[in-house]
Amino acid sequence: MIGGLFIYNHKGEVLISRVYRDDIGRNAVDAFRVNVIHARQQVRSPVTNIARTSFFHVKRSNIWLAAVTKQNVNAAMVFEFLYKMCDVMTAYFGKISEENIKNNFVLIYELLDEILDFGYPQNSETGALKTFITQQGIKGQTKEEQSQITSQVTGQIGWRREGIKYRRNELFLDVLESVNLLMSPQGQVLSAHVSGRVVMKSYLSGMPECKFGMNDKIVIDKQGKGGTTDDAGKSGKQSIAIDDCTFHQCVRLSKFDSERSISFIPPDGEYELMRYRTTKDIILPFRVIPLVREVGRTKLEVKVVIKSNFKPSLLAQKIEVRIPTPLNTSGVQVICMKGKAKYKASENAIVWKIKRMAGMKESQISAEIELLPTNDKKKWARPPISMNFEVPFAPSGLKVRYLKVFESKLNYSDHDVIKWVRYIGRSGIYETRC
Amino acid sequence: MTDSKYFTTTKKGEIFELKAELNSDKKEKKKEAVKKVIASMTVGKDVSALFPDVVNCMQTDNLELKKLVYLYLMNYAKSQPDMAIMAVNTFVKDCEDPNPLIRALAVRTMGCIRVDKITEYLCEPLRKCLKDEDPYVRKTAAVCVAKLHDINAQLVEDQGFLDTLKDLISDSNPMVVANAVAALSEIAESHPNSNLLDLNPQTINKLLTALNECTEWGQIFILDCLANYTPRDDRESQSICERVTPRLSHANSAVVLSAVKVLMKFMEMLPKDLDYYGTLLKKLAPPLVTLLSAEPELQYVALRNINLIVQKRPEILKHEMKVFFVKYNDPIYVKLEKLDIMIRLASQANIAQVLAELKEYATEVDVDFVRKAVRAIGRCAIKVEQSAERCVSTLLDLIQTKVNYVVQEAIVVIKDIFRKYPNKYESVIATLCENLDSLDEPEARAAMIWIVGEYAERIDNADELLESFLEGFHDESTQVQLQLLTAIVKLFLKKPTETQELVQQVLSLATQDSDNPDLRDRGYIYWRLLSTDPVAAKEVVLAEKPLISEETDLIEPTLLDELICHIGTLASVYHKPPSAFVEGSRGVQHKRLPARAGSGESAESPEVGQSGTSEAPPAVIPSQGDLLGDLLNLDLAPATTTVPSVQPSMQMGAMDLLGGGLDSLMGDESDTPGVSHRTEMQSPQPSSDYSERELGGDIGGSPSMGAALGAPAAMPAALSNAPAVGGGLGDLFDLGGGVGMPTGFYVAPKTLFLPAMKAKGLEISGTFARRGGIIQMDLSLTNKAMSVMTDFAIQFNRNSFGLAPAGPLQVLTPLTPNQTIDVSLPLGTTGPVMKMEPLNNLQVAVKNNIDVFYFSCQYPLSLLFVEDGKMERQVFLATWKDIPNDNEAQFQIKDVHLNSDAASNKLQGSNIFTIAKRTVDAQDMLYQSIKLTNGIWVLAEMRVQTGNPNYTLSIKCRAPEVSQFVYQCYELVLKN
Q: GO cellular component annotations, sorted alphabetically (chain B) (predicted)?
């Protein structure tokens, strides 16, 4: 299991050091600094073995988190734990920075004591932790409160406490998708997938039982056999094929496995209900058509056309196209029909920004790139043209069909809950080779 | 609140100041002081001098302060054991606190105080906490048992904590169960033989129930523990799999990977024709793909594991090639791993896409990645024949870029392509030669030299090219020197007229001016070969090369199986067994995949195993007894005639049946060499010239001298010339001779086959031997009757391996009373075949002038081990993988006091050939092959641990029924 956990700043100075096992000594702290942090780019793996000691590290801005062990630990678990650790810290004091860590080092030690015991991760749900790790002491609690805390921390429903009350029962559902694309210069889709998340903010009283439904092909097909097959035919794409999905631990997995129904008692506040991945019938909101022409050895002509491919009534936002330029670029002239374009020498790219663009439109940029003559034999690698955008629909085609809330003990029903649903599609890695 | 100020105190006299503050009356000031102490501790300052002052602050109702003091205590208690006792009272008291959070805090902390003296004081509080009414306290106490065990294992056992811990597995709270499981698993690891985690269907059921309810971390503990269980049968295995599959949808990747581990392991037990097996295979792919959208560090762990899974069960991800395409922004470690998997998944169906991708990658920035991509293109050519041409032209394009490392890498892989497709792409040689000057890496230089040597007859200026390398001969690396030597010899053999001077130059450089024994020996061999018999030299040096393998870097099958049992863990990331990086006893125990249930008869592989006999309708094979009678009545009448070699037709039915079965076995075998070949292309030693290496290596003092001369099938002519060569090389041979010559076939002392009582006075004892490839049955016939015996004849019943007398029983003189005569009967293996029970049973009939007598005896299977049973390494590797795991049998050979070399030497005498030896952690693994007279190959892996007289022997064979008897031979040979 995890033998110790260290947090370093970018210089390799220790900010937090907590040792759980006897086989990890102080020299491990230095070993990591010397062999990994100071080695800069030489270390090419997140797992490093130095003198029979294994170091797992992740970086958040310029802070290094390292878990150390001498045993054959579950590596996936260690990384999951480190991410979780970051989440917990962020939930307590915001951004993970040297300043914040120093300011909260007592709190961090307290957290580390709670969520990692002898190197075994324990309950790390922020909701539960916040009930008793407060930096205020726990003197004032009554006996009932204490046992409520412990039963929550260890209980089946560790993510929610009893007795939550809201005057207005409300829930917000965000379907957040990032669409990833890799396209060949000729416009052939090399790979495309959507990775989506359903994020829920729930402000519900009591211990509500929820049921979430979407246009999952497997479910729809199953129901379709019952009779309502007409719908599906009418508007073409009624259901989507989900390649795989994973759920927050509140979802009853065995029930999903047997009936494919998503039922759960939600945590209070914001959390991620599910993640999913689709690869079939993805709506690609933009198409990028590049044209790069080398004119002699000192000039490049680039023309890029983008086409929006969705309903004309919808508006895409925050559109950004990034056209890489060679390292030996000396000057760039850009002409674009819409938005603003700038050559950024420090980033070796032309960045073209468009605030808004409706569906079924087209726009174009052309640029002349002057090159310095070099005797570098190596050809320019031509990184792909990448794109960023945000669209108000789900590129996978996912639709929320219902989210039902049942709370038998309190007297509010499904109808009394105010529900909000929103779809946001963003670009993930959206690249076109040129 | 800005606590960061505590990090900045660096002035002198600080400790003194802190001391005063710690003893202050004001609570706030105390707390501030303790914080400063902790901050100093964090940055590595020694604040142990403050121990008593800090511990004094322990008695407080301020929980924050208490936690800080505890933190200090955990750090320094070990260096101040006497002082630590001061804390005991507080712990005992806190364990009685009405607040469960304080009770838990106390029990959690006291386990971290690693002072032997105070452990016994902690037993009582711990015992109470293990039975606490609050689950939070119980789950903390469960972990505390593991902590205490780490400090003082004996104490934990004596106090009966282990039993309490086991009881907690049935606790009502899932988190308590999970922590108890984690603690027990850890303790069990340091007691590999104890039955601590007594897993049985009941406990498994409890664990599976808790699995649905506990935290993500608890699920990992439970799944990792489940993976150590071996279900009783395929049904249990399936029901566990069914309950574990929902975990594949968990958001936590570690839960998913641990579930995959359980499924991969238990799948081994499911019959392949089961519907559920196919369903399960399908269910595994999506979650594995999903892991690739996790954070990069987790992707890396996932990819390392997928690499193993793809090797074990390629079918799972064969359609998922695209997800392994490299993204521009992937960290380099992810890119390299993805590339590895892409090559493994490349097939005819997706090769076009893969090639297009690889071509893209070859223009990237990172040198390692580009090199790997170029190499991958070559691997594709070798793997998918249809794509070879496209690959070669892609490589040529890349060479045109003139980027130095790309060119070098391309040349290395093109050499491999030439090996795989000889005489097909030589047109590119000209382009390669243009780049000769830019090659500065040994591997690329060696590859280029090999190409020049191999195609010397088509390269007009081959001699000039090679000569140019020769100038700096002594500055080259060994790899290049060896290659250059061989290439020039090849050139000489092809164009003897112009290159005589060159060859002499290189031979003298290699033999006289070099300190490298490998180079010198190889030089001498060539020299003598060339001067003694140029024709033989040609046969040896220009021999046809064995084909190379399609797959590279395959993990050795036993290791792969072990790593599959460690999915998700560090072992799977390093691709090394835990024993390679974990110190001490923990985790060193080797894990194994379970065997498929109901093996042999199951539908798993009808063509393998004993199906030939077992499926035959019973009417066709008469019972053995009947047959024996028939057989013996037939032929014994003409007394001195030899045993007929043509068998009566009535036996043909049975013989065909079995013969067919065995033929198919042999057919399988002879196919395998075509599938898998040598793969040492990436090893630093250039292995292009297999036959030379074999020869050179063996002469260098290897014990397998006799075998070496017989073994390489590629040089029949060399074999016939061996004596001549041997004479010339007498001095060299003397070096190795006599040191470790094989000990020869072990012949058991004669045993009594037929007592005189049963045979009217004729007593027969005997034994079996294999001498120079000839099987002999040594018999002693004694006449204990009163009258003279004459007219001896012998006949065997049909037997498992077709043993039959190859000549008459040579008893020429009458056997007078009380006389004993020893005869040696040569045996052949072409007689009729029938499976016997036991397999090595031999039923014999002996006739003399008095009567016919029957007896049965058993021969050691080693009788049938033929002299050319040395398999090629690569073939071995592939065959081992190819043979289903349920054909593997494991045995213990006890009390052998030989080291591995002596053992292997001894075994070689009985034609059990050691092909390779690997040493891992003072454990020698010997890989051995045996070939039976009927063409069945037996593969064995013998583990010899230094200082341990017990060997572990794993035997794999397509006909698993022979394993038992092979093992007996091992016993027999090693113990005598």
A: clathrin adaptor complex; cytoplasmic vesicle; endomembrane system
Question: Under the phi-then-psi rule, with left for phi > 0, alpha for psi from -120 to 50, and beta for the rest, what region is A135?
Answer: left
B19 token code pair: 């001391």
Q: Which residues of B588-623 are buried (b: 16+ CB within 10 A; e: fewer)?
A: bbbbbbbbbbebbebebbeebbbebbeebeeeebbe
Contact residues, A window 119-138, toward B, CB-based 8 Å cutoff: 120-125, 132, 135, 137-138
**Integer Cα distance of B497 and B844 in angstroms:** 65
Residues of A in contact with B239 (CB under 8 A): none
CB B113 within 8 A of CB B77: yes
Burial of residue A340, with CB atoms counted within 10 A of its CB: 0-12 exposed, 13-18 middle, 19 or more buried: exposed
Nearest CA to CA, how far is B615 from chain A (Å)? Answer: 41
Specify the amino acid at residue B607. Answer: E
Give A74's DSSP letter.
B
CA–CA distances in Å: residue A206 to residues A159, A263, A416, B172, B473: 13, 16, 14, 24, 84
- The upper half-sphere exposure of residue B98, i.e. CA atoms within 13 Å in the direction of its Cβ, equals 9
How many beta-carbon contacts under 8 Å exist across A and B? 288
Whether residue A26 and residue B290 make contact (CB cut-off 8 A), yes or no, is: no
CB interface of A with B, residues 227-266, below 8 Å: 243-249, 252-254, 256-257
Range in A71-85, B335-349, B486-500, B833-847 the model is least confident about? B833-847
Q: DSSP code of A138?
A: S
Of B42, B258, B403, the CB nearest to A14: B42
Q: What is the per-residue pLDDT across A392-407, written as a single tens digit (0 to 9) for each?
A: 999 999 999 999 999 8
Please give the radius of gyration of chain A, using alpha carbons only, rounded to the nearest integer: 26
**Cβ contact (<8 Å) for B39 and A246?**
no
CA angle B45, B51, B56 (to 5 degrees): 135
B646, amino acid identity = V
What is the percent of chain A where pLDDT is above 90? 56
Per-position DSSP letters for B588-613, written without gaps between them: -SPP-PPPPTTTTTSTT-TTSTTHHH
Give the max Cα distance, chain B: 120
Supply the mean pLDDT for chain A: 88
Contact between A67 and A5 (Cβ < 8 Å): yes
d(CA B772, CA B766): 19
Q: Which of B67, B174, B250 sits opposite A247 (nearest CB)?
A: B250
DSSP string computed for A250-263: TB-HHHHHHH--EE
B 4-63: CB under 8 A from A:
4, 6-7, 35, 38-39, 42-44, 61-63
Categorize the per-residue pLDDT at B869 as very low, low, confident or very high, splitting at 50, 70 and 90.
Answer: confident
With a CB cutoff of 8 Å and minimum separation 6, the contacts of A350 are A302, A322, A323, A325, A332, A334, A341, A342, A343, A344, A365, A367
Closest CA of chain B from A220, distance in Å: 20
DSSP output for B269-292: TS-TT-HHHHHHHHHHHHHHHHGG
Q: Do B295 and A155 touch (CB under 8 A)?
A: no
- How far apart (Å, rounded) are the C-alpha atoms in residues B309 and B320? 13
Residue B682 at interface with chain A, using a CB cutoff of 8 Å = no
Say yes or no: B322 contacts chain A, CB-CB below 8 A. Answer: yes
Are B35 and A106 in contact (CB < 8 Å)? yes
ipTM comes to 0.81
Q: Percent of chain B having pLDDT more than 90?
A: 24
pLDDT at A335 over 60: yes
Residue B680: pLDDT over 80? no
For residues B190 and B585, the answer to whether their CB atoms sit within 8 Å is yes
Write the DSSP assignment of B850-889 as a string of letters.
S-EEEEEEE--GGGGB-TT----HHHHHHHHHHS-GGGEE
Instruction: Look at the alpha carbons of B882, B888, B890, B891 in this order and tell me if their dihedral is positive or negative.
Output: negative
Helix (H) / strand (E) containing A377: none
